[in-house]
From TrEMBL:
<comment type="similarity">
    <text>Belongs to the sirtuin family. Class III subfamily.</text>
</comment>
<dbReference type="InterPro" id="IPR003000">
    <property type="entry name" value="Sirtuin"/>
</dbReference>
<feature type="binding site">
    <location>
        <position position="213"/>
    </location>
    <ligand>
        <name>NAD(+)</name>
    </ligand>
</feature>
<keyword id="KW-0012">Acyltransferase</keyword>
<keyword id="KW-0520">NAD</keyword>
<dbReference type="InterPro" id="IPR050134">
    <property type="entry name" value="NAD-dep_sirtuin_deacylases"/>
</dbReference>
<keyword id="KW-0808">Transferase</keyword>
<feature type="binding site">
    <location>
        <position position="53"/>
    </location>
    <ligand>
        <name>substrate</name>
    </ligand>
</feature>
<dbReference type="GO" id="GO:0034979">
    <property type="term" value="F:NAD-dependent protein lysine deacetylase activity"/>
</dbReference>
<feature type="binding site">
    <location>
        <begin position="86"/>
        <end position="89"/>
    </location>
    <ligand>
        <name>NAD(+)</name>
    </ligand>
</feature>
<dbReference type="InterPro" id="IPR027546">
    <property type="entry name" value="Sirtuin_class_III"/>
</dbReference>
<protein>
    <recommendedName>
        <fullName>NAD-dependent protein deacylase</fullName>
        <ecNumber>2.3.1.286</ecNumber>
    </recommendedName>
</protein>
<feature type="binding site">
    <location>
        <begin position="9"/>
        <end position="28"/>
    </location>
    <ligand>
        <name>NAD(+)</name>
    </ligand>
</feature>
<comment type="function">
    <text>NAD-dependent lysine deacetylase and desuccinylase that specifically removes acetyl and succinyl groups on target proteins. Modulates the activities of several proteins which are inactive in their acylated form.</text>
</comment>
<feature type="binding site">
    <location>
        <position position="56"/>
    </location>
    <ligand>
        <name>substrate</name>
    </ligand>
</feature>
<keyword id="KW-0963">Cytoplasm</keyword>
<dbReference type="InterPro" id="IPR026591">
    <property type="entry name" value="Sirtuin_cat_small_dom_sf"/>
</dbReference>
Amino acid sequence: MKKLTVLTGAGISAESGIKTFRDGDGLWENHSITDVASPEGWRKDRALVLEFYNQRRRQLHEVEPNEAHRLLAELENYFEVQIITQNIDDLHERAGSTHILHLHGELFKSCSCNNKNLIYEHKNDINIGDKAEDGAQLRPFIVWFGEEVPLMREAMKIVKEADIFLVIGTSLQVYPAAGLLHDIKDNCLLIVINPNETGFGYGQRAVVMKETATCGMKLLFDQLVNLA
């Protein structure tokens, strides 16, 4: 099977009802990103950060995968599919995809604030006083702005082996994830589905579809199958 690697961003989850802070004024539920998604915000107000992610977690229980998620899962019948996602939700998993790398962490997990290797499944609220086995406060298992992205090396390896690289629903403005496009092979087919302009210059090599994730995947699916 050919290797199909997919990089997904907030645009694919937005169609399931998950909000993205980059849609408007840079605020996320009226909070600045620094306040709720950075080590500085965590040091300043742990209760605020925990409640922010508790709200995101509750919302995730209420939404469902959309057609783009489901079509990506179906492509596993034709390709060796590896999804690299910037999203922290579990919609790819629920749609049936089986090989998913979460670059920025997972909302349904928690970890010790002193040791990110102490990781726990956590589908409900995290509260002040909830402790890891090392006695430290639990925090969301999320890569915040300003933190290292530990799975980048693995993602780069996957991208370098891709025969087809499909980018869906990301503006490619968040690094280091956007830099993955530098790692594709010269003969790799690059396809981008995003309704808005991205922050990346593709030159002439990319097939660009200015569509939403679901519309783009519906248009592209049969064409991809023909390439298998």
